[in-house]
Inverse folding.
């Protein structure tokens, strides 16, 4: 994670006990759910929800995720989930960080998204439009 | 479960470890997944998959589930999942039974489904058509 | 649901987009997650969380769920989830109701729980202790 | 993925319809479930299941996942999931590849695992023991 841009969005997400696995910690796949939920809330807060995108024929698709696990979330935790984004050609790269209620790093992730427009891989301009202030 | 009709379909489903919860047993909600997966495999085996239904504008919707939990599934279990069905007017009632690899009863469930056709509640004839041999 | 007792707990739960299925509505099994999450938050709010129970060797186990589906939850919904409880011998019966942000009924459920104490089915007194004010 | 070691394990996993999301494709987080399920089946096939590990106080923990998404899985797909492994000091690195029934690449992933032994980060020797023939 060499990205030093400041975070542009943060939200709180509550661990639900059914997300724990047999070790009593949140199962590794659920962190991808939290990261996705954060991106969806961010897009909605910018006035361009995934439902809006779908209506315009825009379909953001995950191309790659790199996630490092630092401290597991446990029952009762409320996490703070932060992101920023940048664009590299057709790719939108989200830098995401989740910390627990004690301020410990839970996971760091870099999530690369591309956009299909009407089913075809796009150069990204349609998806970029509502987010230009964050993309340089 | 007063339904004494013989079962008309059975399949095997493998427990996946991420379905266990903090007690080391399969989380209660996953049984609804297994029951649904069984109904979908049954419909597919009858040549009328959920994808087929969707293409014809038929959308089966759950109206009610009654599920009794007998023995929890644990890591490594392979369950046998059985069903039969009957029709009561617009309602399709699936009688479902899951047993574990030792032959113990895991859950019994009665699942009531109705059909939307092009978004409107139907009398059920479209959904019934491929299954008439099982419905009296 | 013939239970007319007033609700004793309510919480808000946010739909997360990954809980939607291919029909664009929340998958049926997720409602069991929401119902469970509500019971866990209720117990925690009463000062007797599931983690506390486990430390005392008490393990609440689902015996039966009856759930009726009225209106599906969709992307962006924030539900209100309510419950009350009563005791019938060793069984604790939760009457649960989820409504959407428009005030429409989403699901109604009756959830029957029994308690294992140190691995053996109990008469329920250990689990009842912190909740006596709600049980008559 | 610069790892050219041959795969040492493969299994088939069936897509279950509830794993699809609102786009009608398998939700991105479920691939981590498939990858985990594959590792668990592999360990079990080697006679050293996760349940066995737990009994010996060994707890494998994810440190990092890098996953590239190539082709989405859809309803009815049966995937083939393959892995090999290598060791770098305390870290066990699984190279995993999932292909669909048409032979198309679905995801490639590199999964780094470390082992806790009795709750403390270990140098990896306990976890390595049953797998020495695969580790050089």
């Amino acid at each position: 994670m060499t990205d030093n841009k400041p975070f542009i969005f943060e939200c709180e997400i509550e661990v639900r006990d059914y997300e724990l696995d047999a070790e009593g910690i949140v199962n590794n796949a659920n962190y991808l759910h939290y990261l996705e939920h954060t991106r969806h809330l961010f897009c909605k807060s910018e006035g361009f929800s995934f439902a809006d995108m779908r209506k315009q024929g825009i379909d953001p698709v995950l191309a790659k995720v790199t996630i490092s696990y630092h401290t597991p979330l446990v029952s009762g935790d409320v996490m703070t989930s932060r992101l920023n984004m940048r664009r590299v050609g057709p790719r939108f790269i989200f830098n995401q960080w989740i910390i627990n209620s004690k301020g410990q790093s839970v996971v760091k992730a870099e999530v690369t998204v591309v956009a299909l427009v009407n089913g075809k891989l796009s150069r990204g301009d349609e998806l970029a439009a509502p987010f230009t202030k964050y993309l340089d």
